[in-house]
Amino acid sequence: MGSAILVVDDEARLGEVLAAALNERGFETAAVTSAAAALSHCADHAVDLVLTDLRMPDMSGRELLVALKKGRPDLPVIIMTAYATVRGAVDLIKDGAFDYVAKPFDTDDVVATIERALNIRAVVSENARLRSELEGRYRFDTLIGESPIFKDMLRQVGEVAQSRASVLLHGESGTGKELIARAIHYNSPRRDLPFVAVNCAAIPETLIESELFGHVKGAFSGATANREGRFSAAHRGTLFLDEIGDMPLAVQAKVLRAIQEQTFEPVGSSRSLKVDVRIVAASHKDLQKAISAAEFRMDLYYRLAVFPITLPALRERRDDIPLLAAHFLAHAAREMGKRISGLSPAALEALKAYAWPGNIRELQNCMERAAIVAHGSMVETRDLLLFGPESGSVAASGALPSDLDAELERLERDFVLEALKQTNGVQARAAERLGITERSLWHRIRKLAIKVSRVAETED
Ligand SMILES: Nc1ncnc2c1ncn2[C@@H]1O[C@H](COP(=O)(O)OP(=O)(O)OP(=O)(O)O)[C@@H](O)[C@H]1O
């Protein structure tokens, strides 16, 4: 069914002819002869677009436009006008009209204008939908956890989100640091501006400065064009500096200045740029220890740790395990189109007893795998693959022999090493070759304790 168009023209004949012509082009049309009739039609019918004459005896097209826009700001209104009043029609665009068509007009032109308006409206409403989906994803109530330690952490997140204070998140790998950083951004007044994430550990030392601050053409071999850095990209928004403990000391000094003075110079440039960014940093390392070892600047630490938040490890909030497991299991089952109603009591006990060195991410992966291998409607203990140094009696309780794990890890290692070799250690390209995200590659490199040395520098 085509979009519904309402034609408003006090000359009944003209309105009917136009409505019929549009109907022939596949639109659903209705015609009325006064602004009052148009308002009452719109109140009772789903109308996608209004095409109205400007001069009408009871209420002018302009008044109709204003009245329509009051109730439905997103409704496209196109004005039909005689040549003599085109100037006035231009003013109407300022009042919110989408466009005008000058009489006498060609039906093709009217159709083209209508289509343009409907397309733009579709894009705008799709954007609004995506935005609300995104905001929904980072609303606090979608962050799962009921335990007092988790709720206390969320309370702190809620308190700091509204301010522009720097936040330092500390927590083991997989505890949800990036998710919390996003929640801070999407619950702050900066939510409509960019959230830019940089994983300081995943970028080779030689490139991190240019990644953060950008560079000018010719700044170093391979810098063939000017490039914007992440600080500029995050202007007026939030910059998430993940694994900040891995940032080289020399870069730490420049980051400190950028935060303190809100200015920096791109690599190879002497021109200072001004930025307004809110910083959320995260680290799994103990930065106090890094300071004692002279690996981290104390002044930067105090700048970042205006509001420090510690994310609890999953084993410190075991009561949340059933809730999280059920959530990830249901999600995985839905994605796979499998009917799985939950976990058996024994499986649940095994999950609660396990140490979870990889925290929530490990639990998520464990549930995805369980959803794949589960035969019945319940996940059983044998469907769980639990491993790790502290796993104790429930370790590797599954149906797979433990040497298969070692074999899988060896294979994974071979794939990653080969991809890195083929791409001279350029992780972005290696990840592309492996068909995984750069972040996921980075986690594998860490998990497999692979040393990456970059052989050649490449720049786009
Ligand atoms: N409270 C939570 N509720 C639901 N899902 C969560 C929660 N916390 C984390 N997750 C999920 O767990 C996974 C790991 O979270 P995230 O990537 O934010 O961790 P991280 O601490 O940044 O990890 P790393 O330090 O290894 O980068 C993500 O898929 C995230 O969506």
UniProtKB/TrEMBL annotation:
Q: List each copy of the Sigma-54 factor interaction domain by range.
A: 143-372
Response regulatory domain residues: 4-118
Q: Which GO terms describe its molecular function?
A: ATP binding; sequence-specific DNA binding
Q: In which broad location class does this protein mainly occur, judging by the first location in its UniProt entry?
A: cytoplasm
Please give an example of a GO cellular component term from this record. Answer: cytoplasm
SUPFAM superfamilies from the entry? Answer: CheY-like (SSF52172), Homeodomain-like (SSF46689), P-loop containing nucleoside triphosphate hydrolases (SSF52540)
| Subcellular location(s) of the protein | Cytoplasm
InterPro entries linked:
AAA+_ATPase, AAA_lid_NorR, CheY-like_superfamily, Homeodomain-like_sf, HTH_Fis, P-loop_NTPase, Sig_transdc_resp-reg_receiver, Sigma_54_int
Which superkingdom, per the lineage? Answer: Bacteria
UniProt-recorded name of the protein: Fis family transcriptional regulator
Q: Which organism is it from?
A: Azorhizobium oxalatiphilum
What taxonomic lineage is listed for the species of origin?
A: Bacteria, Pseudomonadati, Pseudomonadota, Alphaproteobacteria, Hyphomicrobiales
